[in-house]
Amino acid sequence: MAEQSICILLTMEYPYLKGETFLENEIEYLSRTFTTVIIFALSGKGDAIRPLPSNVVAFPLANITSSFRYMHYAMLGLFKSGIIKRRQIKKRLRPRALFASFYARGRVNATHNKIILHLDTVFKEQTPKTALFYSYWFMDQAYLATLLRNRYMDDRNTQVISRAHRYDLYENRNKANYIPFRRETLSAIDAVYPCSQDGTEYLVSKYPFSKGKIRTSYLGTMDYGVQQELNRVDDVCHIVTCSNLIPLKRVPLVAEALVLLKREGNTSISWTCIGDGPEQERIKDIIQKNDLSLQINLLGRLTNTEVIGFYKTSYIDIFINVSTSEGLPVSIMEAQSFGIPVIATDVGGTREIVNDNTGWLIASDVTAQDLAQSIKKAIERTPEEKTKMRENARNFWEKSFNAETNYKEFYRNVSDF
Predict the structure, then answer these.
(1) Is 245 helix (H, G, I), strand (E, B) or coil?
(2) Helix (H, G, I), strand (E, B) or coil at 13
(3) Cα separation of 141 and 324, whole Å?
(4) Which DSSP letter does residue 60 get?
């Protein structure tokens, strides 16, 4: 944009704390599109731990993140006044949905007040001609973005957009099985960009009145090259997982599959587990009881830079994702970009990135035995078949999930207003 322009980006943690690592790939393209970018990180605290382009500034809003937050914001939503009026809460909701609505009202009202303290000054001093209000999540944050636009829309071109991923998109994946203010948000917003075609079809089927506003936009990862055969140090099949170790991700299934393969005499397999969380103790218990310490390496949580460094210097045969629910995993995009075939459960938009040419799509209710058999089939492929699948994985990533292509296209679209 040649004229003065500003983007207001609403995140949860980025660039503070460790979440939303995928924004690290996108921020450079966003900064090139707008004169100024201001990030409001709702749960951000302390100092920014990730570098930002020179025209990007960030403010940590330090919203409550402990389990106490539910009661705190629900009480604010029930008793305090604010930009969202209490009469806007829908009547005759189920108890959990009603609680979620008061929680959302309380959090939006409190956050709105924090943000306008900064933005009133910014819009007075900079007077940008165009302003994009961009929510990275399609829940109450997106509704907040529409309310902010309403405050600053006079005398300038404005647009409100939101991305949509998994728990913020699929209502049945949300704890309350309900996402407050969704119709209001869809009525007021200019565009919603689900990260998968599956997500787009879900929203269109549930809210057909907003069909023209819903557009699939794949995320993407950077090109760091492909893994080299010279990085292979032995004849062992190297497996990797990269995710939070929470029940949703079912990562202990990988350890259980290795137990079964070991019993069959397949011990030339090693697994590198990247991530941490409550399921880590369960994995450690499986390792100890089955003498798998020589086959399993628990690296813990790594930064995105460290993950990329690991892929650059290693040779991985298979990436595994056995989650019960997904949007469209960036972790799989990263693995594919290095030419690593993938075994993944058929959930959410995963089938849009994993197919017979790039890996193995397995049932969502996969068992340890099923996973063990899939690993075994992958190992038993000929060297020529393995090489071809690695090439296919890399080529598919290049075509569909290259950040350079996807983000340039995304910002061409969103800046045209």
Answers:
(1) coil
(2) coil
(3) 25
(4) E
Please tell me whether the peptide bond between 252 and the residue prior to it is cis, using omega within 30 degrees of 0: no
Token pair in block for residue 235: 């004849």
Most distant CA pair in the chain: distance in Å? 72
Q: Name the amino acid, one letter, at 306.
A: E
Residues 6+ apart with CB under 8 A from 379: 237, 266, 269, 317
Please check whether residue 170 is in contact with residue 195, taking contact to mean a CB–CB distance below 8 angstroms. Answer: no
Supply the pTM of this predicted model: 0.93
DSSP 66-122: STTHHHHHHHHHHH---SS-GGGSPSS--HHHHHHHHHHHHHHHHHHHHHHHHHHHH
Amino acid type, 168: D
What is the full per-residue pLDDT of the chain (417 aa) written as tens digits? 557 899 999 999 999 988 898 899 999 999 999 999 999 999 999 998 899 999 999 999 999 999 999 999 999 999 999 999 999 999 889 999 999 999 999 999 999 999 999 999 999 998 899 999 999 999 999 999 999 999 999 989 999 999 999 999 999 888 889 999 999 999 999 999 999 999 999 999 999 999 999 999 999 999 999 998 878 888 899 999 999 999 999 999 999 999 999 999 999 999 999 999 999 999 999 999 999 999 999 999 998 999 999 999 999 999 999 999 999 999 999 999 999 999 999 999 999 999 999 999 999 999 999 999 999 999 999 999 999 999 999 999 999 999 999 999 999 999 877
Contact predicate 410/404, CB 8 Å: no
Nearest to 152 by CA among 121, 184, 181: 121
Asked if residue 326 lies in contact with residue 171, where contact means CB atoms within 8 angstroms, the answer is: no
